[in-house]
């Protein structure tokens, strides 16, 4: 079992920045893939960015150059720095971990980009 706890969402104006945090209840070295998805109202959940063991970070095309995923192994945490936010980035953002062939999700954190 893996518990994922997210924080850092909120309301931001277009062009602003937010940083999301996700802390895992297990050592993230043992997690094969860990990253962020998002789901906007009426849309399917989609990958934003993720780390896979032994590979560099993978980003969705719509966030390249604006978002950066990073990790702190000592804190068992993954972060998503989001810059140049626009209203289309409004969604619930979910932390995801693939661990021992199981898929785990955090509770989600709302990000709203609005003037």
State the gist of this model.
With 115 residues, this protein is mainly β.
Question: DSSP helix count?
Answer: 0
Structural class designation? mainly beta
User: What share of the residues does DSSP label as strand, in percent?
Assistant: over 45%
Instruction: Compute the CA-based radius of gyration.
Output: 13 Å
Along the chain, the helix and strand elements come as: EEEEEEEEEEE
Number of strands: 11
Task: Describe this structure as you would to a colleague.
The chain has about 120 residues and is an all-beta fold. Helices cover about 0% and strands about 50% of the residues. The chain contains no helices and 11 strands. The strands form 2 sheets. Strands 2, 4, 5, 6, 9, 10 and 11 form a 7-stranded mixed sheet that branches. It is globular, with a radius of gyration of 13 Å.
Name some characteristics of this structure.
four-stranded antiparallel beta sheet, 115 residues, mainly beta
